[in-house]
Please model this.
Amino acid sequence: MSDIYTLAKNGKLTEKKLDEFLQNSQIDAENSHKRTLLVEAVRGGHPSVVELLIRKGAEVDKRDAYGRTPLHLAVVTRKNRIETVEALINAKADPDSADNDGNTPLMDAIARTVDVPVMKLLVAAGASTTKKNGLDQSAIDIANGKNDLNVKRAVLPADEQSPGRLEFIATIVNLVLFILAYVNSGIVRGVVKGVVSNLYHMIGNTKPDRETAKKIDNPETVDDFKKNIDNFVRIESPELSAFFKPKNDFFQKVAEKAVELKEDPNNHLKAPSQISDLTRLALYQPILYCDDSGSMGTVDTEKGPSRQELLRRLVTRMCSIATRLVPDGEGVHLRFINKDQPRTGAYDNLSKDQIDNELKFEPSGGTRIGTELRNKILKPFVFDVFARGQTLKRPILVIVITDGKPTDDDPDAFKNAIVECGQALVDKGYEPEACRFLVSRIGKDETAGNFLNALGGDLAIDRVVHRTSGPLDTKFSDLSKNEAHVEEWLLNVLMSPITGRSRS
Model:
C-alpha cells in the first residue's frame, strides 16, 4: 500500500493505478503515517492529483489527529501552493475549518507562509477574518502583528477589497433577465413575444419585479416595449445608459442568440447559471492580447506541440464561448505584443475561424507586455476614445496570455498601464470595472508565474485584474477528452474577472 501513497506524494499517481487500488481499499484509507492519498498529494503540491482524488470521492475536509484538514496543509505546502489551495476550494473545502488549536487555514497562511495571494483566495472563498483561535486571536489580529500593509489588505473583507465590483454588471444582467421574464409573464397584454418567449424555459419561472413592471408601463407593441425599456434605462439605471443608448437592440439580439444556442445540439452550456454567465460575457467587448515573442516557439514536452500551437487551440475555444451570445458582427478584437495589424481595424471583430487563422504566426521578438498593452489596447480603446469626446460602447474585457517574464524597460509598465486606465475611467464618470483584465500564463516557464504573482497586493490592480492559477494549457490538455468539461471550465475562466470569484 505504501507505493501508491508515494506516487500520490510525488505527483505520479494515475487514474489507472488509483482504480486498481480502489478495488480492494477505500479512497480515504490511511498509510502507516496516518495520511490519506489526498493528504499526500496536497503535501507534495500536486493539484492535478488532488483533483483526481476528489473526483474519485476523497473526503475534502477529513481531519487528521491534530484536527487539520487538507486545506490547512495546502496553505503551507512549498510547491504549487495556490493551485493546490484553489483545487480544494473549488471542491467546496471548508475555509473556516479549525484545527485542535482553533487555527483556520487563513490563520496558518498569515502566520506561517505570509502568502498574500493565498490569503486573498481564502477570503474570497468566505474564510472568516474575525473568528478566534485558542489564543483568542483572529486572522485580522495575526495580520496586524505582521506589520506588512499587503498582508493587512489581504484580510480585508472581499467587498472592501473590490468596492462595487459586482454592482455594475449585475444591474445590466438583471435587466436583461427581467426583460425576458417580463415579456413572458402575462403582466402585459398584446406584446408580440417573438423569439424571446422561447428563452423563458432556460431562465426559469421567476416572475419580474412588480415595481419595475409598473415603471415600464403597459406597452401594446414590441416597439412600445422597447421604447419603454429605453426610458427605464435612462431614468432608473443611468449607469446602463452610459453604454446602451436608446433604440439599442442589443438585448433583443442577445435573446435571439440564446434561442439559437438552446437548439444547438453541439452546445454544452445550457444550464440557467451558464446562460446568465454567457449573458454577462456578451455585454463585454473581449480583446485578446497574445504573446507572440520568440519563446512561444518552445516545446515544453517531448513530441508535444509548441506553446504557440497550444495558444491557438486554447484561444480559439475561448473565443467561441466569449462570443456565443454576442450579436453578429460583434466579434473579438485581437492584438499581439510584437506583430502589428496590417491595416487599421484588420484585427477587430474577428470570428472564431478568423482568430484561429491569425494565431498561426511565427514567434519572434521580446515581451514588452506592459508597453504594448498601453500602446495597442488601452490607448486606442480607452484613452483615444475619451480624447475625441466619445464614450465607450461596451465594457471591456482584456484577455492577456503570456509565457514568460516581461522585457519592458520599466518593470512596472504593465501595472502602471492598468492604473492609468482605471484613473481615466474614473475621470470620465465610469467605474474602474468598466475595463477588466484576465491575465493567464501558458507553458512551463516559472518566470511567467512569478510575473502573475507579482501583480497582487495592490488594491487598484486587484480590483480589476484576475490572475488564473497555473498554466492554462495544462488544464486544457487534462480536460480535452471531455467537451462538456472543457466548455464549463473555460466559461469559468472567462467569468473569473467579471464575478470576482476564483473559479478557474
Q: What stands out?
A: The longest strand covers residues 396-402.
